[in-house]
Model the fold of this input.
Amino acid sequence: MQIQDAGKFLISKWQNLGTRQRTITLLVGIPLLVSLAFLAFFGGDTPMVPLFNHLEPQDAAKVVEQLKTNNVKYRLVDQGSTILVPENEVYDLRLQMITDGAVSSGGFELFDQTALGATDFERRVNYQRALQEELRRTIIQMDGVEQARVHIVLPEESVFIQEEKPSSASIAVKLKPLKKLTDEQIQSIVLLVQNSVDGLQGENISLIDMEGNILMGGDSSGTGVFFTEQTLRQQKVKEAFEQQMQARVQSLLDAIFAPGKARVVVTADLDFSRHERRSITYGDQAVRSEAGSANGIANLPGAGGIAGVESNVNDYEAIADEEETMLLGTDSEDYTRNYEVDTMEEIIVFSPGEVEKISAAVVVDGFLSQEKSAEISRVVGAALGLNPNRGDQLTVSGINFDTTLQDEMEKSWAEDQQKEEMAERKAQRMFWVKCAAALLGALLAAFFIVRALKLKNIGPLPAAAALEKPGPANETAQDLDAIKLSIKEQQRNKVKKYFQEKPEDAANILKTWLRYEE
Done:
């Protein structure tokens, strides 16, 4: 009822307005309404933000269908995997889509609606699906990972220990452009999956990317490749040494050639084992102490008596003499001599990280002569400190570089920059157009208002002019008689006739005249 009353009130007010007032209202109101509509249409664009990213085609189709049903403005990007919606509606729409089930969830939300008649096999499969989805959600949050898939194999339990099979897992990741997983990220992904699955060992986990590169995985024997903390630390030391040597040579090549015209790769073999060597050196001998003995022969008196055993004593020799018998005997004296030896012991300890071998390869864009190649070899060899006795190697080659990818990236970057500049210029133009439209509307309104004020004191009113229009065609006879009358009489008769036929309009004309006279 209030709307109807307001409409009747506006209609009555409009009818009470004179022709000039109606004209002024239309001339002022129409430009003003056009300006407001223009600003509302072009100035009310809401920024578009992602509702969901990296959706599967089935989920994206469900979300788009739901948005169409709700008459929500949307836009598809990233080959249809990302859906953009107005920024002021994104949170409400996201909650609504999840509530309506437009986006399928494979996480532990599967158990929110568990059927009472589900079998053990169905519960085990749902648990496996939920676990895979939860791990996928965690992995895609890592830096450089755009999308991931996790496949887990949970063998059935057996009553026989010998028949039990270990769990295994396979992970496939899609990396963002120009991104690469570090060793720490690979190790963290493996540990995450290993500690999330019961009975899963690190050697039974394989990790690959979408390009088919094996980032981590077991070999055919099942031993697997699993880096320990010490191995990762040694790998870091090796990479840091190689990068240091490579940066040193690269800066030298950039000074000789233009940047990007030469590339160098350095590979170093480091020995991380700890060695210890001992050596003892003996010098000249010196007598520290000495002991000796002396031996000699002496004459001893012979033994007398009858012939027999007692007379035949060992070490005695009877010498027949006419006057007496003599015996020959030995006399000895012992001594000892001690020597001191001069010795020197040397212990050498080799610390881990010793360079065993350095290999380097230098590639220059374009043809390279033998003289130039030899000169570069000498310069690079001196910069790296190569030692031929150690087996170090250096290769210098001249090959034309394939810059197709770089050119495409630069072209794409230039196109993106151009699009951004065009969008910025368009936004600036639209801003000035809006300002000009608003200013034009204000000027038109001011012009017509001023013009209306000037016409206030000018000539007869449009309503009076309307009375001067000729009558209907069927009054031809009356018009012939009216020709004989004076012009003043004709006007008086027309006014009288108008008052008789349209008394309400005549009253409004009088009111208008009185209002202007005031």
